[in-house]
Amino acid sequence: MxxxxxxxxMLGAGGALIVGIPARRAWAAPPPVPLALLGDSWSQLDAFxxxxxxxxxxxxxxxxxxxxxxxxxxPRIIADELDADWARVEVIxxxxxxxxxxxxxxxxxxxxxxxxxxxxxxxxxxxxxxxxAAARWLLRQAAAQQWNLPADRLDTRAGWxxxxxxxxxxxxxxxxxxxxxxLPDGGVAPKPASAYTxxxxxxxxxxxRAIVSGRQLYASDQYWGEGYVAxxxxxxxxxxxxxxxxxxxxxxxxxxxxxxxxxxRATLGPLGQVPLAPGVAVLARDTWAALKGRAxxxxxxxxxxxxxxxxxxxxxxxxxLLKGTPTTRVxxxxxxxxxxxxxxxxxAEYHVPFVAHATMEPMHCLxxxxxxxxxxxVPTQEPRAALEVVRxxxxxxxxxxxxxxxxxxxxxxxxxxxxxxxEAVLLAQAxxxxxxxxWMREDDLTHDVYRPFxxxxxxxxxxxxxxxxxxxxxxxxxxxxxxxxxxGSRLWQSELQPDTWPVALMPAADLAWYALDFPLWRGAWxxxxxxxxxxxxxxxxxxxxxxxxxxPLKLRLALLQPARRLDTAHGVLDTARLANVLRxxxxxxxxxxxxxxxxxxxxxxxxxxGGYCAHAFEVSLHDDAVRFHRVVAxxxxxxxxNPLGLEAQIAGGTLDALSTAxxxxxxxxxxxxxxxxxxxxxxxxxxxxxxxxxxxTVLSTASPSGAEDLGVxxxxxxxxxxxxxxxxxxxxxxxxxxxxxRGG
Length: 744
What we know:
The chain is of the alpha+beta class. It folds into 3 domains: 9-208, Aldehyde Oxidoreductase, domain 4 (2-Layer Sandwich), CATH 3.30.365; 219-305 and 363-438, Aldehyde Oxidoreductase, domain 4 (2-Layer Sandwich), CATH 3.30.365.10; 322-355 and 450-741, Aldehyde oxidase/xanthine dehydrogenase, molybdopterin binding domain (Aldehyde Oxidoreductase, domain 4, 2-Layer Sandwich), CATH 3.30.365. The chain contains 18 helices and 33 strands. It is globular. The termini are far apart.
């Protein structure tokens, strides 16, 4: 098979246009999405579209939906190229697209299926537009043959092909004929931007009506007949084992069917996955019996290491560590000693705690292993990694594994790890029946993969003209890449960026990382490489500005001049675009005008995954509470697919960042996480947050970038800077509530 771009065209039952691959095995029961565009090889299946004889259009959404809006945005890219009638489009959530290669390795048939890092929109922009364009071309050719007219004289609009004299044919009427036409070898070019009708226009979430009416199915809503519900009592220590168990009372609970110990931490091996916590699973006929049975277990646990671990001691260790030799010298540019000589030296430390993901829907997984097949229903951000977990535990070929991807009740990076998938598969194997594994909130908070703890120490040299001559950023942290098959010399990558704003613009720079050892497992949390460092950097820039009597906005704009484009590990940093979002946010908030008495304004900016964001806040303080008067976010993500979805992402990210910065932290005493449920982990309530986040989008024709993490990093430092401007304390430690409660 050659590697040219091609489509396989056929006629389906009922006269539907089918362009795609042969149907999968009947047992896998794929969703009814009958049109597929293949990319440069069989392993890159780009998109799915189906046009039924009645004119209804089905479009497959390949990316896991965790609230970032891709189930709407990706199909609209295809629908625009197709010139479909969006009112008659039905979006279908695709399962993981995988088949066997000849050597037993997986062949990814739908292209990228992943949620995280803002990668879905950029990838879709490159490989989904040709799907709709090819289908539109086929339909025009079919109409041209029927009317005996040149195809280039025909127009398409909202599900119709239209002749110059006004005659119209519905796509459904043309589906059968279009299926008999071959596509050109060179492919079909997407339409010009001037012809877009859906891209750039606001659209509500395709699942919104189902969500607000309670009809949206999540994994936690689904059951399999004749199966078990499972809950697990897990070891409270990050590194421990079961020492003693008495399950007599648990087995006596009506409805409890099996008690299954999970005794190994090495089940997943060195795959970069989180090992399983030792535990004891209770399998029952219903949820209530499973929970009651778990409560009746008499268990004694023993810690291997870390029984005395505490976050209070960790903070002391970090401070001591920063006085010594770094684990890794990340960057040494210029002569730091010379750059710091004869200039004013400023410094500050910023503390970032462990935090949990606390997704609305805790981890769940339904698993059925039988007859040489595996069937999972699991809300995961990384279905390919989930497949590898199933393969390792079952030995099954990829083509015998079906993973359905229901809408997830939040992700934030937690569902990039598939430890709960492994638990469900192991229990399904032990039970010999379908198993629905359920995590309770206590399981979720005490066995998360937490955002890393870090202590940032920043130093800058500032000359008499207020110019920053030297920049030093030293970080002691518990890297999220620890035990994830990353070389020790690269563990700093979880939080330090030596090639981006603002360190890349400094004449002399020194970045160093100090490894902190701690038993808690860490993982990705929204904008994982940026969220902690941006808080420290943008807060420190504000401190430099105030200490040197400069305007914080002008200080940043001066650093961004002259305009330039810099290649970074996170995309091309265009300093003019970053400066523009800063200016726009400042303009909207009224920067430079006198604020009302008692009010303070603050701003901050960030460059994340090719996108640009600036926040500007106006706040006042009342006792130990913050009152938000205005919250502004300006974003530049290139061409916008769905403005309403983008606004939701930025507003939601802003609110999440504020709640986390003000109130949340995970603490450990005697090796055990203290926070058990929301009373201990108090997510901000509505009256503690802004009534509105004003989101402004910069109009752009640049290729689109993702936005799911973009609204998070600069929100916390903008708030901290505004609180200081309002007469509050200089906030260098998250969560802010401690400093605000004691007035600094």
